[in-house]
Amino acid sequence: MKADVKNIEVIAQKEFADRLYSPSFKMLLGIFTLILLSMSIEYGINGYNIFEFGFLDIAQVITLFIPILGLALGFDSVVREKNSKSLNTLLTHPVFRDNIISGKIIGGLGALIFVVFISVIASIGILLILTGIDVGFSELNRILIFSLLTFLYLSGFFAFSLLMSIISKSSESSFISGLIVWINLVLIFGAIVTAASSIITGELIVDLGHNEEAMSMSEDLQKLSPASYYAEAVTGVRVSYGSFGISSGKDTNGIFDTRFGIGTWLADYWTNLVVLTAIPVLIFILSYMVFLRRDIGGEKG
Questions:
Q1: What is the reported pLDDT for 254?
Q2: Would 157 be classed as within a structural domain?
Q3: CB under 8 Å, gap of 24 or more: what pairs does 2-8 form?
Q4: What is the residue range of 261's domain?
Q5: Distance CA 33, CA 108 (A)
Q6: Dihedral sign (CA 221, 71, 35, 277)
Q7: Checking DSSP bridges between strand 237-238 and strand 246-247, what pairing results, if any?
Q8: What is the gyration radius of the CA atoms in the chain, in angstroms?
Q9: Is 175 domain-assigned?
Q10: Residue 126: per-residue pLDDT
């Protein structure tokens, strides 16, 4: 048992270091951090108070584009070592397959925590400093919950990219698979929902906003994307680029709505929290099952 824990720890440390020192990952992290910081600085200069007006614009950027970081963390985690035969070499040592996949998951999640701290917490910190907003215990709790939501949201994409890395025969095909899912479930999902609502109801796209049936259908279809659960919990609005920004209809307007206590927010959005948690957990379980049964030695790069 001690040997297994030690093996997992070593693999996790290596995976964490590999992710953070990856040039492509550092470039992506730098770009997104700069984008969030620039928006925070602009809001700060204008005296924007996120606890009064919400976090809609920055949350939209996070919802639409930061999933790429989750994909970048795991797309070559297994397939790179599989094709280089380093996995075969590793398995000749007293290291079991479950040790390997556990270490990679823990190391990747550790890197995700780092991503959230750098790109999200830093941007909120700059905004609070520039605006001089007083931050008490309640506000800190909201920032921590927001960070947790962001971590869970990104974890789903990391989990999917890890699964694709196990299944795919090359790093390129693994990353392309992740991009296809991101583009369809996040980036253009709103446009897909709009088109589907128009086709099903027979209403013209320009008139969809005045059709209750179309609006209801759009609301239901947006629930198929993890982005809607994240955006709704943060802002109270399902953010879908190219579609309607549909209000949740709840009392609170997301986690930064200080008119209500955190208990009220949790009562309104506990299902969002459950879904955002269940998505990565289920995909990680599937990754375990696939990796343990995969014929690593028999595959060609």
A1: 87
A2: yes
A3: 3/94, 4/96, 4/99, 7/94, 7/95, 7/96, 7/99, 7/103, 8/99, 8/102, 8/103, 8/106
A4: 2-293
A5: 19
A6: positive
A7: antiparallel
A8: 21
A9: yes
A10: 76
Residue 299 lies in a domain: no
Q: What pLDDT shows up at residue 298?
A: 46
Q: Rank 33-42, 168-177, 237-246, 253-262 by mean pLDDT and report only the highest.
A: 168-177
Higher pLDDT, residue 193 or 278: 278
Q: Quick check: is 300 in a domain?
A: no
Number of domains in the chain: 1
Rounded to whole angstroms, how far apart are CA atoms 39 and 127? 9
Q: Give me 141's structure tokens.
A: 């709790």
Token readout for 36 is: 């969030």
Which pTM value belongs to this model? 0.87
Residue 202 backbone zone (phi > 0: left; psi -120 to 50: alpha; other: beta): left
Whether the per-residue pLDDT at 276 is higher than 50: the answer is yes
Give the pLDDT of residue 2.
56
Digit-coded pLDDT (tens) for 67-109? 998 998 888 888 887 777 666 566 556 677 888 889 999 999 9
Q: Could you tell me if 166 and 290 are in contact, meaning their C-beta atoms sit under 8 angstroms apart?
A: yes
Residue 207 confidence class, pLDDT cut points 50, 70, 90: low
